[in-house]
Every structure is written in C-alpha cells, then in structure tokens.
UniProtKB/TrEMBL annotation:
EC number(s) on file: 4.1.1.37
Record site feature (Transition state stabilizer), residues: D75
Gene Ontology annotations of biological process type: protoporphyrinogen IX biosynthetic process
Top EC class of this enzyme: lyase
Protein name in the entry: Uroporphyrinogen decarboxylase
Biochemical pathway: Porphyrin-containing compound metabolism; protoporphyrin-IX biosynthesis; coproporphyrinogen-III from 5-aminolevulinate: step 4/4
Family, per entry: Belongs to the uroporphyrinogen decarboxylase family.
UniProt entry tagged with the keyword Cytoplasm: yes
Subcellular location, record wording: Cytoplasm, Cytosol
UniProt catalytic activity: uroporphyrinogen III + 4 H(+) = coproporphyrinogen III + 4 CO2
Limits of the Uroporphyrinogen decarboxylase (URO-D) domain: 20-29, 140-156
Binding sites annotated in the UniProt record for substrate: R25, Q26, A27, G28, R29, D75, Y152, S207, H318
Organism in which the protein naturally occurs: Hymenobacter persicinus
Length: 346
C-alpha cells in the first residue's frame, strides 16, 4: 500500500537499502510555501484547526524536500486544550495559557477528552492527508509526553526552568499524579484514534524530559510513557525525550521500536549500552545546518558513521530552526540518500 515504507521497515529493525530521513518541524517556517500560506491566515491555530490547510502544510515538505515521512501538522498543546485549558500562540513568542493549573479544583475541572469530540479536527486532518498522500510516504502521528504537557499546563508558557511545574512535584506529588493520569488517559485515546484515522507511526515528544532529576523522571514521566507504548501494540512508537540520556536504558525495555536521540547523545555509546533491539533516530545538531554546503555534507556523513547503516532513522537532534536555509536542509537529506547506500557496501 505504501510506495515508500523505508521508515516503517527501519523502525521494525529490517535491513533497508538506505537510511530513511525526515526532520522534526519539517512542516513550518523553513519553507517559503508555509510562510506564504500562514501569512494569509489569522494565526497558527486557524492552520491547525482547518483540516484541509493542515493537510496541505503536512505535505509541503514531502513535495519540497523529498523526505521519507510526513508528520501531521498540529501541536502537542491541542491535548491540554481538549482537556479544558485553551492555549494561544503568540507571534514570535510561543505558546501561552491564559489560565493555568494551580489547585486540586483546577485538576478536577480537567476532563479526559474524547478524541472525536474534542480533537476531531486533527483526526480529520489525518484522514485528508492520507487520501492526498496516496501512499507516497508513511504519516507520523504524535503527542507530547504527559510530563511535558503538565509542564505547560502548570507553567502557562515556555520557560528555561519550568520551576512552577517542577515545584508541584515536590509540594503536591499526589496532585501531579492525578493530572498526569488524566493527561495519559487522554493521550492514549487520542493516539489510538490517530492510528485508526491512518497514522502509520507514533512519536511521543518529551521535550522537557531533561530538566527533571532521574528519580523524578522515573516517577513522573517515563512510567506514563511506558503506559502509552503498551496501549499502542499495533503501531511502531518512537520515544523522543530531549535531554534524558539517563533514561535511554529504561526506554530500551519499553514496547517501542525507536528511541530518538538529541544532539548531546553519542549514538555509539547508546548502541553499546542498549544492544540492537531498538532503532535509533537522530541526531544532527540543528545548528550544523548553518554551515556551508560542504560542512553540512561532512557533518551528515559523520553522523551516519556514528549510527551505522542499520536500525537508524536520520533526523536532527531536535526540531529544525525556523531560520535555517531550506537548501542546506536539502543537502542534509540528499547526503543521507547518497551516502547511506554506499555505507552498506562496507
Ligand atoms: O513538522 C512538524 O514537526 C509537525 C508540526 C509540529 C509543530 N509543533 C508545529 C508548530 C510538532 C510535531 C510540534 C510539537 C511541539 N510543539 C513540541 C514538541 C517538539 C519540540 O519542539 O520539542 C513542543 C514543545 C511544542 C510547543 C510549541 N509550539 C512551542 C514551544 C512553539 C513556539 C516555538 C516555535 O517554534 O515557534 C510552538 C509553535 C509551533 N508549533 C510552530 C509550528 C510550525 C510555529 C508557529 C508558527 O507558524 O508561527
């Protein structure tokens, strides 16, 4: 059914003729066609909430960059909104929650969302995208990890420290768990619905994993990610927990196929630590794409060598920065396509 299933075969651990490649945040401001469409709209949320438009920008990088996967255009913050906490996306600043979670009553007011009722626009965007893609490449669905979602719900906006969110883990751990359980239940139903709508692979983003100490990470984050993985037995899952190098051996025991690495992590050390049972995804420093064409090629080849030819999905170590030259993104992608088949010949 899929004309290009490299991503899924690599995730399952099958040998592939070359390394598949896509980029986190590939649909977005790096593409002039995204900026043009976005400029005609009232804002980010209009794009996210209009399935035909979300599908259009999901497919833009498949056309413009020839990546091996599409990722549904949405945001992790649609989940708190579905639970009862609306977000705003402030131009050039980022997300803002006018109301935040401060008390037990606030947590009690949050609902476990029904995917069709509260997130139907994302599911419809997935269905429209699948029809339009017509099997060209797999479609990735996603959600935030419960800890990262809690962090935004409590803090209300991005932060270097998320100290309000981390404070809650010390002052009222029971309340934190109550909220995490509701987020987890919402996320499981939402991701199962994404799969039913046509998502071929699911990625869980724990963007704020790296700010927790390891004991808190196990207590307040990874166990909920494990629950999510267990609830999605029929689809490959990727766990990407930025900064949580200490948790990678634990992820290696989860019911997931792929572990995403950020650019601080050493693929060789991870491979040596966890063995060959998981596929690894990543991990070029997004800033490497600010170099010259030759530097981008060399950095990409070095990255491919560190991972080796099998059980690797090429990507950056985090989302591509919006001011990256799209031509250098193409150099990254083309280098993976040209070099990785050669690397298989020894
Ligand atoms: O191409 C893709 O990867 C799919 C789309 C996608 C978006 N957000 C679109 C977006 C995905 C997978 C996300 C996930 C997301 N959103 C994460 C997890 C990944 C990560 O980066 O760690 C997080 C933490 C968010 C929350 C969020 N959304 C922030 C902090 C911001 C502001 C920063 C920024 O890049 O502007 C957003 C906004 C956002 N989400 C944009 C896009 C394309 C920019 C909005 C615009 O077009 O103006």
């Amino acid at each position: 059914m899929l004309k290009n299933d490299l991503l899924l075969r690599a995730a399952r651990g099958e040998e592939t003729e070359r390394t598949p490649v896509w980029l986190m945040r590939q649909a977005g401001r790096i593409l002039p066609e995204y900026r043009a469409l976005r400029a005609r709209l009232s804002g980010f949320k209009e794009l996210v909430e209009t399935p035909d438009l979300a599908a259009e920008v999901t497919i833009q990088p498949v056309d413009a960059l020839d990546v091996d996967a599409a990722i549904i255009f949405s945001d992790i913050l649609v989940v708190p909104e579905a639970m009862g906490l609306t977000y705003e996306m402030i131009e050039a600043r980022g997300p803002l929650f006018p109301e935040t979670i401060k008390s037990a009553q606030d947590v009690a007011r949050m609902r476990v969302a029904d995917p069709e009722e509260h997130l139907g626009y994302v599911l419809e965007a997935i269905r429209v995208t699948k029809r339009a893609l017509n099997g060209r490449v797999p479609l990735i669905g996603f959600a935030g990890a419960p800890w990262t979602i809690l962090a935004y719900m409590v803090e209300g906006h991005g932060s270097k420290t998320f100290s309000k969110a981390r404070r809650l883990l010390y002052t009222d751990p029971a309340l934190a768990h109550e909220l995490l359980r509701k987020i987890t239940a919402t996320t499981i139903a939402y991701l199962q619905a994404q799969v039913a709508a046509g998502a071929n692979l699911i990625q869980v983003f724990d963007s704020w994993a790296g700010i927790l100490p390891p004991d808190h990470y196990r207590e307040f984050s990874s166990r909920y990610i494990a629950e999510i993985c267990n609830a999605l037995p029929d689809v490959p899952v990727t766990v990407f927990a930025k900064g949580a190098y200490f948790a990678v051996p634990e992820f290696a025991t989860f019911n997931c196929r792929t572990i995403g690495l950020d650019w601080n992590e050493d693929p060789r050390a991870v491979r040596a630590a966890i063995g060959n049972e998981k596929t690894l995804q990543g991990n070029l420093d997004p800033c490497a794409l600010y170099g010259s064409r030759e530097q981008v090629q060399q950095a990409t080849i070095d990255m491919l060598r560190r991972f080796g030819p099998h059980r690797h999905i090429a990507n950056l170590g985090h989302g591509v920065y919006p001011d990256t030259d799209a031509d250098n993104v193409r150099v990254f992608i083309d280098t993976v396509k040209e070099f990785s088949p050669m690397a298989r010949q020894g």
